[in-house]
Specification:
single chain, mainly alpha, 16 helices
């Protein structure tokens, strides 16, 4: 496999995947821009509520990652019927989890918000967003599972088309619900839930057509759904650790005050937007390494690893330069508050400096998921979380009065300490052959 040929395959997956990945942060960015014009309290409420909602969705990212790795490996082994069966089981699992988690969020949203200790006005805005958006969780999780299945088939174009339509439709929909309809922050949640549900229905319909083409029953297999869930336990642990780190970061920002929480929404949304460039390459590595492993080609696995790391390093450095230059402009666009702009610009500069380190963490994360080396990944994510947690805990306690300096320390901790703690052990792992397993399954 030549470098040119591999570059073409990486780009054929990564470019449409990037656009697909950007749909979710684009929904949050649109909500942030629209709600930010309502005021600082509304933006802070959105920051808290969207973090809770995205934490729930983020924990379920295993629906995407597990189906990508599994379907890619079985397609590589030339067993498409088994691959599609696993994909359908993932969709059913996503739908069931979405209903359950939506009910938990609707009934327990006030309690969850209270854990962060926000001001009363901020809590009220967060409550309205959560109640309006929780019914869209089944659609959100179906999108994850369906997208993972299609990526395992090396089809990144179909998710792109569906999510592009959904993201574009969300812009006027949210605007109408926030302003003319007068729902305010809750209107943003309602618009996002509607767009996500539409995307989930469209992708589920496409997967069902593919399954029927391969002669696979559309009914759920109890054993298959259970298998999908049990095999995903390491990914769930890995993602829970990641989300605990994110929640701790939000809690620390909340403790630093309303300006810090509002600035955190801008910095965090921009970080997620930028990180998706790296994640698109990591997902390409997942699919390509999964299929190469299924075919039994160790040489291709090593070649894909090396080439993806080159791509990750280059894209990470480029993104860092662009974000550093654009930081003041982003802050002006996202908020009208002068103090919040100052805090956000500082946080964005810290993020820009850490993106090359994050690139290595993201790429190696995707490589090991594609190889099925998820147990090691889970343990290393737990270790990196324990290394990072002292930073937000100190800001929740003795460093709480540091103000703007504390906000900078928070993002140095997340962007540098957390990402470096993730990247280093994964890199050392790939210097051995212990993570490579060929054949149909690990």
């Amino acid at each position: 496999m030549s470098s040119h040929s591999l570059d073409r395959q990486i780009l054929q997956i990564a470019v449409p995947t990037l656009a697909t990945l950007l749909a979710q942060p684009l929904l949050v960015l649109v909500d942030s821009a629209l709600v930010g014009r309502l005021g600082t309290v509304e933006l802070a409420g959105l920051s808290l509520a969207s973090t809770i909602l995205m934490t729930i969705v983020g924990v379920c990212i295993f629906l995407s990652y597990a189906t990508t790795a599994a379907t890619a490996r079985y397609f590589g082994a030339e067993k498409p019927t088994r691959a599609m069966s696993l994909g359908l089981d993932g969709l059913w699992l996503g739908a069931g989890l979405g209903v359950l988690l939506g009910l938990i969020l609707a009934l327990g949203g006030d309690t969850i918000i209270g854990w962060f200790g926000p001001e009363a006005a901020v809590a009220a805005e967060a409550r309205g967003y959560l109640l309006a958006s929780c019914w869209g969780l089944p659609g959100m999780l179906i999108v994850l599972a369906a997208t993972g299945t299609l990526r395992g088939m090396l089809d990144a174009t179909t998710p792109l088309k569906v999510t592009t339509v959904g993201a574009l439709a969300n812009i006027p929909l949210s605007y109408l619900l926030i302003y003319p309809a007068g729902f305010g922050t809750a209107g943003a949640g309602l618009g996002t839930a509607t767009a996500e549900t539409g995307m989930g229905i469209a992708l589920a319909w496409f997967i069902a057509r593919q399954a029927r083409h391969h002669g696979v029953s559309l009914l759920p297999s109890g054993a298959g759904v259970l298998y999908s869930l049990t095999e995903s336990v390491p990914l769930i642990i890995r993602t829970l650790c990641l989300r605990v780190g994110i929640i701790a970061t939000v809690a620390a920002a909340t403790a630093l005050g309303t300006n810090a929480l509002a600035a955190h929404q801008i910095v965090n949304a921009t970080w997620n937007f930028s990180a998706n460039f790296l994640d698109s390459l990591a997902i390409a590595a997942q699919a390509l390494i999964g299929q190469a492993s299924g075919r039994g080609s160790i040489d291709q696995v090593h070649t894909i690893l090396r080439r993806c790391l080159v791509w990750g390093a280059g894209v990470g450095a480029g993104l860092g330069i662009v974000l550093a230059a654009a930081a003041p402009v982003i802050s002006i666009i996202m908020t009208s508050g002068g103090e919040v702009r100052s805090w956000a610009t500082l946080g964005l500069w810290v993020c820009a400096s850490s993106l090359p380190v994050a690139a290595l963490a993201y790429m190696l994360d995707g490589v090991l998921i594609g190889a099925g080396d998820t147990r090691y990944l889970a343990w290393m994510m737990l270790a990196s979380l324990l290394i990072y947690l002292p930073v937000p805990l100190l800001l929740l306690g003795p460093w709480q009065e540091l103000g703007k300096l504390g906000f900078a320390i928070l993002w140095i901790g997340y962007g540098w300490i957390f990402m470096l703690a993730r990247a280093l052990p994964l890199y050392l792992r790939t210097r051995t052959d212990q993570w490579i397993v060929i054949g149909e399954s690990r």
